[in-house]
Design goal:
Chain lengths: ~280, ~120
């Protein structure tokens, strides 16, 4: 990139006063400092997640078993939906960096085009996350425990959790290991008899218990992806404001598109955080 | 009042059409790289345990490695940190790395101990 940062200047000139020794504007430097503090917050959350997961003696849920649904489809598609979300966010990051590049050429039309696509991508991501939360909270049927301490997964074709025993194709899966929704099938009158003897029926997820595993699992899911989703949402709003300013020609009159660069830094940071959330929450 | 003490570095941050072409080429390269890495991660993450049940821990470690590669490309190319002066790179990355490496170390150490305590005394 052209500009001050690539000029070879001696330390005497750089640190001699009257200029930024980092050859970076005040606004950009403050954005970087904010991003470092925000990165520390997100790292703290992910490390806390790792701490709980590593210290717990209960079985921890596995990402590719829990997240394997696609909207409107039945069947198992492990991680495909999350991968799609990741892809949307990466692409919107690319359109953002293309907007920054267009800004460096004072190409107003290019900035508007790429920023618009970035905003669209951001909305798609927030919408995908809303569906993911909906599905996570509703669950895939839940499980019951009996007086003997056995655990059965509750299944039916309608994902009905309010009255599952009367739903179509009601059956139970007797859980033999800690794997999510894995077990031997029990059907018909036998299944109904076990259902009537249930002590507990846990389905979906809330802050105190969930069908996937320890309570902290859902708590961390809500907090980490929620905190990230809040960042995405505010990023979309900021991008939208900058888009309107670009359309009005504010930056063109100013002579540079640095504001696009600064919001771009924030937007790329949101993508960067998602890369880590994707790895540590869904993959490993 | 007109301020004369602000240096507008951004006025120097323009580049030409040809330079833009080279930059866009780099952006597309990084895009393809990030997409390919993500696809590999998803396929391996979803099916490795069915195909080859062994070496899952090695796979997990390689996921962390691939994530760091992705993060490096995002920070260096998309966020342009690779184009900034070395001193700003250092004040962004070094304090962060110092805090987080220690945090990771102490969290692993302590969670091992907590896990051992629960397994031993409960």
């Amino acid at each position: 990139m052209a500009g001050e940062a690539s000029k070879a200047l001696s330390n005497d000139v750089l640190w001699g006063g009257g200029r930024s020794p980092f050859s970076i504007s005040y606004g950009k430097m403050m954005m970087w400092f904010f991003l470092v503090s925000d990165a520390l917050t997100f790292s703290g959350l992910l490390v806390a997640y790792g701490f709980v997961r590593h210290s717990t003696t209960e079985a921890w849920p596995i990402g590719e078993e829990v997240f394997r649904a696609l909207p409107g489809l039945t069947g198992s598609y492990p991680l495909i939906y999350v991968a799609l979300m990741t892809f949307i966010l990466i692409i919107s990051s690319v359109t953002m960096v293309l907007a920054v590049e267009a800004g460096h050429r004072m190409d107003k039309k290019g900035v508007i085009k790429w920023l618009f696509l970035t905003v669209i991508g951001g909305f798609f991501f927030v919408g995908s996350q809303a569906w993911e939360w909906y599905h996570f909270i509703h669950g895939s049927g839940g499980y019951i425990t009996t007086t003997e301490g056995a655990k059965y997964w509750v299944q039916n074709d309608e994902h009905n959790t309010s009255d599952p025993a009367n739903a179509k194709n009601f059956h139970l899966l007797r859980a033999e290991n800690s794997s999510y929704l894995q077990g031997t099938k029990v059907e018909g009158a036998e299944a109904l008899a076990i259902w009537e003897k249930r002590v507990n029926y846990v389905h979906g997820a809330n802050m105190t218990r969930n069908e996937y595993g320890p309570a902290q699992y859902a708590n961390f899911f809500f907090f980490i992806t929620g905190f990230h989703g809040f960042h995405v949402f505010s990023g979309v709003i900021i991008n939208l404001i900058v888009l309107i300013m670009a359309v009005q020609g504010v930056f063109h009159r100013r002579g540079h598109y640095e504001m696009v660069e600064k919001t771009g830094l924030y937007w790329h940071f949101v993508d960067l955080v998602w890369v880590f959330v994707f790895t540590f929450f869904y993959l490993v | 009042m007109e301020r004369d003490d602000i240096i507008e570095y951004s006025l120097d941050a323009h580049h030409s059409e040809e330079a833009g072409k080279a930059i866009r080429k780099k952006i597309y390269f990084v895009t393809i790289l990030l997409t390919v890495i993500t696809c590999i991660e998803v396929v391996v993450g979803a099916y490795w345990k069915e195909w080859f049940p062994a070496y899952w821990n090695v796979v997990k470690l390689s996921f962390i490695g691939l994530t760091l590669v992705k993060a490096g490309y995002i920070v260096a190319t998309f966020m342009h940190l690779g184009d900034e002066r070395g001193n700003i790179r250092a004040i962004i990355l070094l304090p962060y790395a110092l805090f987080i490496l220690y945090l990771i170390f102490i969290a692993i150490w302590e969670s091992n101990y907590v896990n051992w305590s629960w397994n031993t005394f409960l």
